[in-house]
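User: Here's a structure from my thesis project, written as structure tokens. My advisor, Dr. K., wants to see whether a designed sequence matches the one we expressed. Can you design one independently, without my sequence as a hint?
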């Protein structure tokens, strides 16, 4: 806003110089310049805008924007919360999921956000969270920067209004991910994580291509067209399946998804489902970056049944993506070094002053744990059947890109299914034993 008003002042000045012999017009231009200067002052002193904070403080005072977040450190959940300021996260697609994810990360005090979208804000977006009616017509990236910089001026925001599926867009996307100006000492490329929040497979395949080429970990998210289910997925090049390893039917069949759109019919969307998926995505992001808890490889959400399926997918040795195959080879070659690091970590974890031990000394009231009532612990007999059915539903839509994957994917699903059923049976046996005491 301030920049635009400044431009307007320059334009008025140019106009005045081009009309030296019109005193009455010059007088009107003077008045307009005064009004613009007044508006500039108003914009500068917009209420509620806080000053930047140099260091994250854990001090418990109402004026500290980070006190509630730093409490995670005091309670032993996160070892070093302030590290969040070192991280750069790229969000591709600033729609119903991406915009909410960007807001959550901004409120959490992330170091830097790179925002990519080519679309503009429309009134049809108002059923979702984040964008406001007065932002209609603005690009989604600029509108996001406007809101996010007000919420937390400490976050470095970069707005890229481009389409990553075009040649030029892809080049800018790649070079922006590689840029290490924000943290020159960082290993790898310039970002720590890429979040895909796009609404089409073509763009997902482009993010997949970029991340495979750059060996960059990313998370994919999606909400179904009927607005009642969604998922998040962690993709580590070479270690987990990439998006091309087991592509959805529409990608594997080579059909242009744009031809599948029906005239006058649009996808449904709910702020609730979008909010849940954005929440799951950012939760997984925080756990991944700050190294706490379990980082989900895949987490689904079925709103109609309130069911959250999980699974793991190994990479496909016959993947159609050449960069994916390169990363798979590197991952296999690095196994001895990985095993040694895991061994060293295990030994470190057994040290008496580890974070784990610190957490263990907290009693239940400190950890805010409530014991389940007896009735809440009983597992319905239908749970196992429901699990099998849900995993079957989950895998519908995934088809192998070649026959070899069929047996590979099938074996993985059977294995994870068997593991989950085994776990359920084990839990049930333990509960039965407890009930019998
Ligand atoms: Zn792959």
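Assistant: Designed independently from the structure alone:
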């Amino acid at each position: 806003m301030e920049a635009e008003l400044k431009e307007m002042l320059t334009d008025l000045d140019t106009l005045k110089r081009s009309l030296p012999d019109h005193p009455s017009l010059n007088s009107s231009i003077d008045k307009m310049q005064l009004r613009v200067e007044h508006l500039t002052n108003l914009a500068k002193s917009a209420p509620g805008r806080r000053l930047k904070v140099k260091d994250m403080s854990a001090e418990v005072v109402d004026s500290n924007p980070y006190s509630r977040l730093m409490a995670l450190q005091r309670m032993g959940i996160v070892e070093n919360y302030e590290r969040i300021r070192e991280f750069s996260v790229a969000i591709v697609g600033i729609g119903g999921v991406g915009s909410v994810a960007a807001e959550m990360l901004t409120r959490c005090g992330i170091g830097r956000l790179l925002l990519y979208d080519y679309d503009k804000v429309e009134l049809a977006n108002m059923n979702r969270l984040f964008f406001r009616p007065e932002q209609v017509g603005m690009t989604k990236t600029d509108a996001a920067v406007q809101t996010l910089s007000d919420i937390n001026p400490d976050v470095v925001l970069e707005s890229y209004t481009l389409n990553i599926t075009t040649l030029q867009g892809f080049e800018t996307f790649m070079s922006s991910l590689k840029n290490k100006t924000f943290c020159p000492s960082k290993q790898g490329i310039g970002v720590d994580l890429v979040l895909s929040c796009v609404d089409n497979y073509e763009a997902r395949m482009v993010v997949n291509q970029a991340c495979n080429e750059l060996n960059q970990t990313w998370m994919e998210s999606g909400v179904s067209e009927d607005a009642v289910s969604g998922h998040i997925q962690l993709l580590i090049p070479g270690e987990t399946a990439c998006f091309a390893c087991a592509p959805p039917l529409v990608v594997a069949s080579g059909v242009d998804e744009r031809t599948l759109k029906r005239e006058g019919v649009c996808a449904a969307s709910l702020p609730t489902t979008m909010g849940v998926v954005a929440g799951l995505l950012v939760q997984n992001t925080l756990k991944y970056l700050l190294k706490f808890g379990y980082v989900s490889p895949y987490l689904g959400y079925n709103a109609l049944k309130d069911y959250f399926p999980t699974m793991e997918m190994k990479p496909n040795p016959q993947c159609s993506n050449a960069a994916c195959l390169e990363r798979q080879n590197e991952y296999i070659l690095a196994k001895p070094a990985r095993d040694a690091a895991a061994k060293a970590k295990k030994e470190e974890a057994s040290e008496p002053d580890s974070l784990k031990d610190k957490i263990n000394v907290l009693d239940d009231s400190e950890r805010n744990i409530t014991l389940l009532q007896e009735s809440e612990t009983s597992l319905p007999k239908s749970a196992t059947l429901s699990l099998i059915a849900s995993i079957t539903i989950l895998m519908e839509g995934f088809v192998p890109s070649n026959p070899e994957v069929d047996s590979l994917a099938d074996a993985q699903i059977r294995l994870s299914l068997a593991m989950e059923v085994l776990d359920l049976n084990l839990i049930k046996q333990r509960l039965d034993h407890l009930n019998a005491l």
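When you compare it with your expressed construct, this may help: The chain is about 50% helix and 10% strand.
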